[in-house]
Design a protein that fits this description.
Layout (H helix, E strand, L loop, with lengths): L16 H7 L2 H4 L3 H4 L4 E2 L2 E2 L10 H17 L3 H10 L4 E6 L5 H12 L3 E5 L13 H11 L2 E6 L4 H14 L7 E6 L5 H14 L13 H6 L15 E5 L6 H10 L6 E5 L10 H10 L2 E5 L5 E2 L2 E2 H4 L2 E4 L9 H7 L11 H5 L7 E2 L23 H19 L3 H11 L3
Parallel strand pairs: 3-4, 3-5, 5-6, 7-8, 7-12, 8-9, 12-13
Antiparallel strand pairs: 1-2, 10-11
Helix pairs in contact: 4-9, 4-16, 4-17, 6-16, 9-11, 9-16
Protein name: Aspartate carbamoyltransferase catalytic chain
InterPro entries: Asp/Orn_carbamoyltranf_P-bd (IPR006132), Asp/Orn_carbamoylTrfase (IPR006130), Asp/Orn_carbamoylTrfase_sf (IPR036901), Asp_carbamoyltransf_Asp/Orn-bd (IPR006131)
Family: Belongs to the aspartate/ornithine carbamoyltransferase superfamily.
Length: 417
């Protein structure tokens, strides 16, 4: 649902109280992200998490370091006991009125790792919204009982507007709590982008338990034909996104984060269909960022004189999000060969030996964008990617509640030897 800017007299005027409430924030919603981000921070750290643009490379590295430490501490009983004691006095509301499995469960697990008590509303039919309560009233009510609201909604810009509501409450001396956007309409999914980046960071460290002072996986890869110029880290890479680019909010969020790194190229592979191709606003944002990006309609189109499937350093697959289809969309698909946007073992065999395959999930068993026979390929990272969400989101919550420093000190004092 988009914010309606028409006058009240028009046929497209807002029809619900929620839509009218969104208009109260119209001026703030229309600003560039750069103008918004200071309002979403407090004392040099994130207060509300709404956009992927709030993460810069330095903060992403910091969060990755905290996530790695939480991962290590969680392997030991003493580390678990320490982590669970950090925020045992905090309560979180998981307000998920749009279907979710991985995001909901990983946020719940992240809260539990840090000792945060969770409650949930996943079906508005079980809440007072069935009695006519607006979403904004629901969110303000939640802030009376909880210390954090993690929200996922089909309504675009709702999370951002609720962050401004909380800021207004704070300024007037009322109770205000952090808002974390776990997916807002087709806008953004910043914490998915965070865990995607974390997965890429760990992958492009190129470390292995078998590494030694005499040999390492990274040096071995650099002797492989075509990999001589391989570097560690997220810079100097070609990232490809395939599938539903137009409606994939995870694609939008991750692409904007990757555009922050040096010498990065972004390739978008999608069918020739208006709903599935890159939206103009993403083109404009990437252009304004000075990012190198390309649009293809096939894995066989060339970059650097080679098919893109052989050139990419990482591949991000997505399903066609049919839940957003209109009747015109469904009719338009009939003329498309969507099988071209599904991976096959043959295509994977042509990829670079280190190139990870990511997917935000769920994958569509009917569309078949990633068949299960690829799951055992060492480059298939999507199940690790989902688990990484738990660690990355725990690190993010530790940052929001300002206990990340405690975690790092405890680790270095008690576990680093």
């Amino acid at each position: 649902m988009s914010v309606v800017m028409s006058s009240p007299a028009s046929d497209s005027a807002p029809k619900t109280q929620d839509e009218r409430d969104l208009l109260l924030y119209e001026g703030r919603l229309q600003r560039p992200q750069m103008a918004k981000t200071p309002e979403l921070a407090r004392n040099g750290r994130l207060r509300h998490v709404i956009f992927s643009g709030q993460f810069n490379p330095a903060l992403l590295d910091e969060l990755a370091g905290v996530a790695d430490v939480i991962r290590q501490l969680s392997k030991h009983r003493a580390g678990q006991d320490f982590l669970i004691s950090l925020l045992h006095h905090k309560r979180a509301m998981l307000y998920f009125t749009q279907p979710s499995t991985r995001t909901f469960l990983s946020f719940m697990a992240a809260c539990q790792i840090l000792g945060i008590t969770c409650n949930e509303v996943r079906d508005p039919q079980t809440s007072s919204e069935t009695k006519g309560e607006t979403r904004f009233d629901s969110l303000r009510m939640f802030s009376s009982y909880f210390d954090l609201i993690v929200m996922r909604s089909p309504m675009a810009r709702l999370a951002e507007s609720c962050a401004y509501l909380m800021n207004d409450l704070e300024r007037s001396g009322n109770r205000s709590v952090p808002i974390v956007n776990a997916g807002s309409g087709a806008d953004e999914h910043p914490t998915q982008a965070l865990l995607d980046i974390y997965t890429l960071q760990r992958t492009f460290n190129f470390t292995s338990p078998n590494d030694s002072s005499y040999s390492s996986r990274f040096e071995t890869l650099r002797t492989t034909p075509g990999c001589e110029n391989l570097t560690k880290g997220l810079s100097n890479k070609t990232y490809a996104f395939c599938g539903d680019i137009g409606r994939g909010r995870t694609v939008r969020s991750l692409a904007m984060l990757l555009a922050n790194y040096e010498n990065v190229r972004l390739a978008f592979i999608s069918p020739n269909h208006q709903s599935l191709q890159m939206r103009e606003d993403l083109r404009e944002r990437l252009t304004a960022r000075g990012a190198q990006f390309y649009e293809f309609d096939s894995f066989e189109q060339t970059l650097d004189g080679k098919p893109i499937i052989e050139t990419l350093d990482a591949l991000y697959m997505t399903r066609v999000q049919r839940e957003h289809d209109t009747s015109d969309d469904a009719a338009g698909y009939a003329a498309l060969d969507l099988t071209q946007y599904c991976l096959t073992p043959q295509l994977v065999s042509r990829m670079k030996p280190y190139a990870p395959i990511l997917h935000p999930f769920p994958r569509d068993q009917h569309f078949g964008e990633i068949p299960t026979e690829i799951d055992n390929d060492p480059r298939a990272m999507y199940f690790r990617q989902a688990r990484n969400g738990m660690w990355a989101r725990a690190a993010l919550l530790a940052h929001v509640f300002d206990v990340d420093g405690h975690i790092m000190r405890f680790f270095h004092n008690d576990f680093s030897v």
